[in-house]
Amino acid sequence: MTRRFIAWIAVPWLGVALATEAQTPHPKALGNIHPAGEVDRPEMVKFIVTDPASLPGIVVDETSADLVGEWQYSTHTPPYVGLGYLHDMKAGKGSKSVTFTPTFLEAGWYEVRLAHCHNVRRSSKAPITIHHADGDTTVRINQQEEPPLGHLWRTLGVFRFEAGRAGWVRVSNDGTEPDKVVIADAVQFLSSAPPKR
After folding, report:
1. Domain coordinates of the chain in residue numbers?
2. Are strands 108-115 and 153-161 parallel, antiparallel or unpaired?
3. Quick check: 123 and 173 in contact, CB under 8 A?
4. Are the beta carbons of 173 and 93 closer than 8 angstroms?
5. Which residues have CB under 8 Å from 43's CB, separation 6+?
6. What is the pLDDT along the chain (197 residues), one digit of tens a residue?
7. Which has the closest alpha carbon to 143: 124, 127, 169?
8. Does 7-191 carry CATH code 3.40.50.880?
């Protein structure tokens, strides 16, 4: 029998106390600048997923992603996964990225989903690169539009991955608007049938 140890942790700069499994903010990310409890869409708070481990499939949250450049935490616009989400602060365009690398126990086809909150302050052309067994696929998504799955998730497609840690998904701010932010939160990989050709 496997036991899961859950602890309540306070995260003062996020303004929340969460029941979590050793979630800690990314050490390279800057802290949240919004006061505790300040959100712009209170009706969306109920869609926050506080525990990434409660989700099906493989979920990689920003807490274990690889960051290039300065990214800042926020909880101002729910929903989000885990402790919050990261944004690029409208700065360093073309030089910042967040890479989510899963560990696949077995090779196969996986539906790849990206979590992000939305509003008019987001980029309308955020580039997302999926590195899979058959190469790289880059799609641009509109983070101003509400994700269709649970108000939080957007499907990027179905891709083939080898077992291990060779695959990844990268959110970058290359080619995005100078007055808009790019959001990086979490990526989910769900076992899937191969796409129909």
Report:
1. 7-191
2. antiparallel
3. yes
4. yes
5. none
6. 333 333 333 333 333 333 345 689 999 999 999 887 899 999 999 999 999 999 999 999 999 999 999 999 999 999 999 999 999 999 999 999 999 999 999 999 999 999 999 999 999 999 999 999 999 999 999 999 999 999 999 999 999 999 999 999 999 999 999 999 999 999 999 999 998 87
7. 124
8. no
